[in-house]
Amino acid sequence: MTPEIIDKVARLSCFENPQDIVALGGGLTNVNLRVDDRGQQYVVRLGEDIAEHGVMRWNELALSRAASAAGFSPKVIHHEPGVLVLEFLNAQTFTEADVRNPDNLQRIVSMITHVHQDLAGHLSQPVLAFWPFQVNRSYAARLHADGSPHARALPAMLAQLDQLESAVGQIDMVIGHNDLLAANILDDGDKLWLIDWEYGGFNSPLFDLAGLASNNALSETQERAMLAQYFQSDPDQHWRAYSAMKCTSLMRETLWSMTSEIHSELDVDYDAYTSENMDRLTSALADFAQT
Q1: Mean pLDDT of the chain
Q2: Stretch 266-290: mean pLDDT, rounded?
Q3: Cα(237)–Cα(231) distance, integer angstroms
Q4: Structural domains of the chain in order of their starting residue, each with its CATH number
Q5: Which long-range contacts (CB under 8 A, 24 or more apart) does 277-281 make?
Q6: CA angle 156, 269, 128 (to 5 degrees)
Q7: CB of 210 within 8 A of CB of 189?
């Protein structure tokens, strides 16, 4: 929150008399603010394209509009380069513990199922694919070129990635959210909402399920119940491919954080986030080796 940011938000053409401009927490790649205007509240997301993360704001806008039309996300009020204005939801932001709550987890999996089934029908333009294996290879190449202090770990990670991609095998294609952190799930008391579509795009449904589990420390019992609910079948049929995608999701989050250590200017402890995700990845790879 700087005077320049406040002034920029106050001058947006969608507002008549903006008041009480306050920062919102949770953004790892954006500056997020809440604004009161004419008795209504709005969220302003400030963020340019992020080449090192493959974030293209036109893609985020297209998916945000489609998700709103499908009833999964708040309404898009205004956009311009580097700015996205959304309606503010009076809702609870989930924590990892909230996601692990059995009742909440069933609701979340139901929402993900409907997102995968319905969202593509509300798109009005092409959007990106998010193939996590290529995403991870791109991160590794950039980290090597940028002289990352983690460069020594990259060859082993890439070798593991080839094995994981082979284990995932043939996939179905859906529109995925691809960033299922707890903070991107909101509960207004009646329904769940899904926000932050900057990584959205075509992907395997396994990636959202694996990301939900890996980002929120689900137990194996919860993972198996999640797969049974989503696929309406025995989770053993999907377990090896799912386990491989879970490792891939954790590798992506680890590489994302390594990249952010170099490029991000936000006040976030990315070193600690890298270490946390590397520990989770090491554990998941050990479990995968037993499948």
Answers
A1: 95
A2: 92
A3: 10
A4: 3-87 (3.30.200.20), 92-288 (3.90.1200.10)
A5: 277/250, 277/253, 278/254, 280/214, 280/217, 280/250, 281/247, 281/250, 281/251, 281/254
A6: 60
A7: no
Percent of the chain whose predicted confidence (pLDDT) is above 70: 99
- Give the integer Cα–Cα distance in Å for 198 and 40: 25
Q: For residue 268, what pLDDT is reported?
A: 86
Give the CA diameter of the chain.
Answer: 60
Structure token digits, residue 224: 């198996």
Tokens of residue 50, six digits? 């992020």
Tell me the pLDDT tens digit for each residue of 122-132: 999 999 999 99
The residues, any chain, with a CB within 8 Å of residue 205's CB and separated by 6 or more, are 112, 116, 172, 174, 176, 230
How does pLDDT run across 193-249, given as a tens digit for each residue?
999 999 999 999 999 999 999 999 999 999 999 999 999 999 999 999 999 999 999
2 pLDDT tier (thresholds 50, 70, 90): confident
- The single-letter DSSP state of residue 153 is G
Q: Please report the DSSP string for 143-177 in residue order.
A: HHHTT-TTGGGHHHHHHHHHHHHHHH-S---EEE-
- Please name the helix (run of DSSP H) or strand (run of DSSP E) that holds residue 280, with its range, or none: helix 270-288
- Distance between CA atoms of residues 116 and 189, nearest Å: 23
Please tell me the distance from the alpha carbon of residue 228 to that of residue 163, in angstroms, as a whole number. 25
Name the residue type at position 25. G
Sign of the Cα torsion 121, 122, 126, 127 reads negative
